[in-house]
UniProtKB/TrEMBL annotation:
The keyword GTP-binding does not apply. It holds the Pfam family C1-set. One of its GO terms (cellular component) is endoplasmic reticulum membrane. Residues 178-293, 301-391 form the Ig-like domain. PROSITE patterns: IG_LIKE, IG_MHC. InterPro entries: Ig-like_dom (IPR007110), Ig-like_dom_sf (IPR036179), Ig-like_fold (IPR013783), Ig/MHC_CS (IPR003006), Ig_C1-set (IPR003597), Ig_sub (IPR003599), Ig_V-set (IPR013106), Immune_Resp_Modulators (IPR050380). It is a single-pass type I membrane protein. The chain crosses the membrane at residues 405-424. GO terms for biological process: immune system process. This is Tapasin-related protein. SMART domains: IG (SM00409), IGc1 (SM00407). Keywords: Cell membrane, Disulfide bond, Endoplasmic reticulum, Golgi apparatus, Immunity, Immunoglobulin domain, Membrane, Microsome, Repeat, Signal, Transmembrane, Transmembrane helix. Residues 1-18 form the signal peptide.
Length: 454
């Protein structure tokens, strides 16, 4: 965002010195933005480029601001008296008919370390009225605050009549006001507070879309469309009280909210199919404008580390499952007792697997070399859905400890088997004997010698 020389410095200093005890009150303030004007007919492709974009200045006149003392010393815009070739085109826009809901964010963008992208282009009425278009022109301005800030689109109509002997701009051939500006009035605006959103899989999301229009213009339709990977589809539409729902569960704000200028869309039970660019298009009896909200779906991974093979060299498997989007970083770390952690780069990966729900899974394997003192191996996973990386660790014993452990296990097993064998022999010695011939079955019990019969 650009302001007249010294404005931003004065504003930032005023903000830092604002008294906490100051009584808040509304005050009209001029918001000045550096913009680009897209001129028609200067490029064959029809797309904006450096060849058909010229510098411009947009002045939103006397926008009501809540002043807590921070606007002290802030002066109104002072324009020139004559527009010259090569000088920026200055558009002076009145907001008496339509307020700009995000004007405060536009005003304070510089002091917040943000930038405002502002582009002005010609706007043509949906229903052309020849008697009107001969004496007026329309422009649409799109303003976007960086770092996920609000986005605002406004439709402006020129106020002065070129047939009344007014001075014309040298290139636009539009009548100029006393300060050498193209005087306009804002008659329609569509805004979103959240141009980019991140939501977890399965949660609900509300996509903000607000609007307002000058008196005498009526709302005729609201349409939400989804664009993703080259294909588009209707999500929801509202036309003079009738609605059409294409995405199950999608709801618009109640009709009384539409009257108040709220066309936000709510989507419950998000799936990966809901990801994409949502276009909120608001249509009135005269104008049409839109905002784009990018919805990103995320699912956090689950990490499990296991030992796939006990034979030397050991094989560790790190399973990462249930995440979205598919971009993920897996890092293996080896740390000996008392040593510094060392990253290992020779891990291998399985192919990427996708579940029916659209989430992804992958496995990473590593040949572990514990060394003479043993080592701890860690599988670390970084993903956009995580505030901090996930980790799973295991300790691998050195070869001699594994041999000793195996020897102890073997000796214990041998001792147990020996006891089992001796017990079995004793049981056989004290158990009845069963004798059998081809004709008779009988049992003889061995008696102690002192009880033997002759």
């Amino acid at each position: 965002m650009g302001m007249e020389e010294g404005w931003c410095l004065l504003l930032c200093l005023a903000l830092s010195r604002a008294a906490d005890t100051a009584e808040s009150q509304w005050r009209p303030v001029d918001v000045v933005l550096d913009c680009f004007l897209v001129e028609e007919g200067r490029h064959r492709s029809g797309f904006p480029s450096s060849e058909n974009m010229v510098k411009a200045l947009l002045v939103l006149r006397q926008v009501p601001m809540l002043d807590d003392g921070s606007l002290e010393g802030f002066t109104d815009f002072q324009g020139g008296t004559q527009a010259k070739d090569g000088s920026p085109v200055t558009f002076e826009a009145s907001v008496n008919l339509v307020q700009i809901p995000q004007a405060e964010a536009l005003l304070h963008a510089d002091c917040s370390g943000q930038e405002v992208t502002c582009e002005i282009s010609r706007y043509f009425l949906r229903a052309r009225q020849e008697a009107t278009t001969e004496t007026a022109a329309w422009f649409i301005t799109n303003m976007q605050i960086s770092e996920g800030g609000p986005s605002v689109s406004i439709v402006m109509k020129t106020l002065r009549d070129a047939h009344n002997g007014a001075v014309l701009h040298p290139t636009l051939h539009l009548p100029l006001g006393p300060q050498g500006t193209v005087q306009t009035a804002v008659e329609f605006q569509v805004t979103t507070q959240t141009p980019s959103l991140n939501f977890l899989l399965g949660s609900s999301a509300t996509l903000h879309c607000g609007f307002s229009m000058a008196p005498g213009s009526d709302l005729t339709s609201v349409e939400w469309r989804l664009q993703h990977k080259g294909s588009g589809q209707l999500v929801y539409s509202w036309t003079t009280g009738q609605e059409q729902v294409k995405r199950e569960g999608a709801t618009l704000e109640p009709e009384q909210q539409l009257t108040a200028g709220n066309a936000s869309l709510t989507l419950p039970g998000l799936t990966v199919k809901d990801e994409g660019a949502y276009i909120c298009q608001i249509t009135s009896s005269l104008y049409q404008a839109q905002q784009i909200i990018h919805l990103h779906i995320q699912a956090s991974p689950k990490v499990q580390l296991s030992l796939a093979s006990k034979a030397l060299p050991l094989t560790l498997i790190c399973n990462i499952a249930g995440y979205y989007p598919p971009d993920i970083t897996v890092t293996w770390i080896r740390e000996e007792l008392g040593g510094a952690p060392v990253k290992i780069s020779d891990a291998s990966f399985s192919s990427l697997r996708q579940s029916q729900a659209g989430t992804y899974s992958i496995s990473s394997s590593l040949k572990a070399e514990p060394g003479s003192a043993g080592a701890t191996y860690t599988c670390q996973v970084t993903h956009v859905s995580l505030d901090e990386p996930l980790q799973a660790s295991t300790w691998t014993a050195p070869p001699d400890q594994r041999t000793t452990a195996f020897g102890v296990i073997f000796a214990s097993s041998f001792f147990f088997l020996a006891l089992l064998y001796l017990g079995l022999q004793r049981w056989q010695a004290t158990s009845p004997k069963v004798c059998q011939d081809s004709k008779t079955h009988w049992v003889a019990t061995l008696l102690p010698e002192n009880k033997k019969k002759d």
